[in-house]
Amino acid sequence: MPPTSFKRHRFPPDVIRHAVWLYFRFTLSLRYVEEMLAERGIDASYEAIRGWTRKFGKTFAHKLRSTRTKSTGRWHLAEMVVKIAGTRMWLWRAVDDEGEVLDMLVQKRRNTVAAWRLLRKLLSHHGAHPETIVTDKLASYRAAARLLGCAHHHRPGRMLSNNRAENSHLAIRRRERKQQKFKSQGSAQRFLATHAAVYNNFNVQRHLIRRSTFRLFRVEANRAWSAATALA
pTM for the whole thing? Predict the structure, then answer.
């Protein structure tokens, strides 16, 4: 994994890495991150922090994804409405049965083409066909699965899909409110892709494990973050 270069930046790398971690790890606005840095005597504007998140967020996310273990073969797909620049759009998302965010696409339509794009992206990035593809009863999923030759893996049914897929939308809704909606389709896609990688890394599902196990998982998550943001 090649290290990240922080050359030609006025602030030390540790400050930049910490600011990016705060923004994507927690439900914080850029101005809140600015205040938290100021409390530590670091006078960085929220616009500078915005630039760091855009420049380094994608790089960090790519490195985090490259070290993740393979997801399970049981996929849950769902779509949610998002308002972007006052326009109603659709966020198509996929998670596995352990809550790992697999991928997402911001689309203008809720139709077969949009479902096909998400499913094609999943099959391309995750290799072989999954064991099951669980969705709600939207006919677009069935048509897309048929076009891509994986209809025999498709399991439509709202009760099957909603608990896992719909619950995974909650973190996005919180960020959407904090950011006062997304400003463009491209910026929403960039932010959500980075957010998903950071979320996956630190989501250890602590309510399902013992405290001692949680501590081990947290140490491993922090180690992975340190490796992904290592200096050049």
Answer: 0.88
